[in-house]
Every structure is written in structure tokens, then in C-alpha cells.
């Protein structure tokens, strides 16, 4: 298992690397302190996981998430000192699969990372789901809305897949958290809200008046079979 840890300085890169070396045997960890170098490593080495260990995600570091998502669906996690909700939301919107606020529990970081990687790679080749005008190729992290192709992050892919497998039924916050991270955890509903917002944007579903992914207040969400393309 090959990891890439990116941080503004060597100390932060090494501290995050140490967590995985201690708790996840067999990991080969590359590090970088430069955005351009990180992109080059991603293209040449094709690691299995990307961790951004940042004091405050901003500027070039947030742009790195966007740039990675232009060509890769690699599982990507941000670890940061910044507990500002807007920063967390922005990271998710750009394509992060999870966001940890320091200080974090090392074992929780490793377990949730394992869950993200497992779900990103555990789909049988060629498997696809069709619900109305939605067609999901889970292995490729691609969904089609009619003829329009949309790229998904691994976490978005897992959320949509779970909802498509339960179309017409309420999917609870807890079951979605189990599907994505392998366990429920405090504030999962708030984190899922960000992902659902992003999914709606990608699918063309109006967040203010959704017709595809509906809110079920206090419970979770329900996917309605789309029979007409979004306006």
C-alpha cells in the first residue's frame, strides 16, 4: 500500500507519516512539501492514498485538492488545525473524502482511512447500477445523468451507490456513515450534509428544491428515481 503525505514542512509530513507507520504495517509512505512536486508524484507513482497534513488549508493547498481531482479519484483526506466550518465545507466541495481537526485520534484516522480505501477499491469490475436516468459505474467513479458524464470522488461514489441500492427508501444518517467510514461517529450527519450538497450540484439537483435526493428530516435522505433530466 503506497501513501503520499503532503505538508507545508518536513516536520508535519513526518508526524503524519509516523501515525501510519506505527498503526498500519506494510505501508510505503512518500512525502512532499511542495504542491507541484506532489502532483508529479501522483502522476508518476500512482499512490493508493493521499493525506494533506496542513495547519490551515488555504491558497495553493486548497487548489491542490482541485488539481488532483482533475485527473484522479484517489482517496484524499485532509488533517488540519482549522476547525472553521467554511474551510471544511470548501475542502469537501473541492473533492476531499474526509476532514480531521487536530488534535485527532490516530487510531480513528487510520480506521477511517482504511474504510475509505476499502470502499474505493472493493467494487467488482464492470459492476453498474441503473436507477431511472442515473447510471453508476462504481469501479470507475463515474455516473451518467442521461448522457451527461459526471466524475465522483470515492466517498461521493459510495454514498450514491448506497442510495441507488435503496432507491425509494429512507437511507439513515447512520447507515450512510457505516457505508462510507465503516462506523457511525458524532457529527456524521453534518459531514454527510456537505457530501449530499456536492452530489446534488454534480447531478444537477436543486439544493433548495431537490427532486432527486430528498431530505427526510431527522432521519436521513431518500433517492427518488429520476425520470426527467434536471432543468
From TrEMBL:
One annotated Gene Ontology cellular component of this protein: protein-DNA complex
GO BP term, example: regulation of DNA-templated transcription
DNA-binding region(s) from the entry: 126-225
The keyword Cell membrane is annotated on this UniProt entry: no
Alphabetical list of Pfam families matching this protein: Response_reg, Trans_reg_C
Any one GO MF annotation of this record: phosphorelay response regulator activity
InterPro entries cross-referenced by the UniProt entry: CheY-like_superfamily, OmpR/PhoB-type_DNA-bd, Sig_transdc_resp-reg_C-effctor, Sig_transdc_resp-reg_receiver, WalR-like, WH-like_DNA-bd_sf
UniProt keywords, alphabetically: DNA-binding, Phosphoprotein, Transcription, Transcription regulation, Two-component regulatory system
The keyword Transcription regulation is assigned to this record: yes
Gene3D superfamilies: 3.40.50.2300, Winged helix-like DNA-binding domain superfamily/Winged helix DNA-binding domain (1.10.10.10)
Name of protein: DNA-binding response regulator
